[in-house]
Amino acid sequence: MKVLAIDTSAVCASAAVTENGRILSESSVNTGLTHSRTLLPMIDSTLKNAEIQLSDIDFFACSVGPGSFTGVRIGVAAVKGLCDGLGKKAMPVSTLEALAYNLSDRDCIAVPVMDARCQQVYCAVFLNDSGTVTRLMEDSALKIDDLGEKLKEYEGEIIFVGDGAEICHKALGYKKAGASSVYQRGSSVAFAAESNYSEDRLLSGAEIMPTYLRLPQAERELKAKALKKGEADNG
């Protein structure tokens, strides 16, 4: 089964083609350029390097969040277009779960962390054991100190992975993933999708939607202004 998977949830964007757990081709860009400029050329290059046509893909896999609101929307929109144009389906994958697969070759407690700003991280906890990735904690948005308290519940080697790994390592002292495995990878999105594969989890382009743990900043600011106005009117 051939999968085209993409991740645009953070500064690093990645695309990969896999077949039955084997990477055929993978590309990543971590230059800071907008994903709207880099994603489609990267997908085209990845397919060409694998000598695969889009029509050969059995299904798509897409990281749907949490992460950058704009980045996630770009990736989801691209997959929607591919699904609609080719009459194929896609599997949504948690960004954090995909990051845990970066460490699937290590027996550890994998803790994917992404900088959510406002002194928070998007985070989850997974047990990686003999190549099997098992979720231990749901995707959450937590203050780093609160995450530290949660991690006291787990035994084993704890490793941070994701763009929040450095700040969590400095604050909490646990290990962080190496440079080659710390950022999002399209292949990890594909492996997560393959591991969780079932026909009923495949969605049409119209059904694929971003997953947010917090409201976008514009909506948070609008709510804050409305709350202040309400307090002023009642004052």
Output the CATH homologous superfamily of the largest domain. Answer: ATPase, nucleotide binding domain
The SSE order reads: EEEHEHEHEEEHEHEHH
Domains (count) = 2
Which percent range describes the beta-strand content?
25-35%
Total count of helical runs of at least 4 residues: 7
Helix/strand structural class: alpha/beta
Unreliable sequence segments: 216-221
Order of adjacent strands in the largest pleated sheet = 3-2-1-4-5
Q: How widely separated are the two ends?
A: 63 Å
Give me the oligomer status: single chain
Task: Kindly provide the radius of gyration, computed on alpha-carbon positions and rounded to a whole number of angstroms.
Answer: 18 Å
What about the largest sheet? 5 strands, mixed
How would you describe the shape?
A: globular
Mean pLDDT: 92
A few lines on this structure:
With 235 residues, this protein is an alpha/beta fold.
Written account of the structure:
This protein has 235 residues and is of the alpha/beta class. The chain has two domains: 2-95 and 184-213, 2-Layer Sandwich (Nucleotidyltransferase, domain 5), CATH 3.30.420.40; 98-176, Nucleotidyltransferase, domain 5 (2-Layer Sandwich), CATH 3.30.420.200. It contains seven helices and ten strands. The strands form two sheets. A five-stranded mixed sheet has the order 3-2-1-4-5, sandwiched between helices. A five-stranded mixed sheet has the order 8-7-6-9-10. Helix 5 (165-172) links the parallel strand 9 (158-161) and strand 10. The protein is globular and about 45 Å long. The protein starts with a strand and ends with a helix.
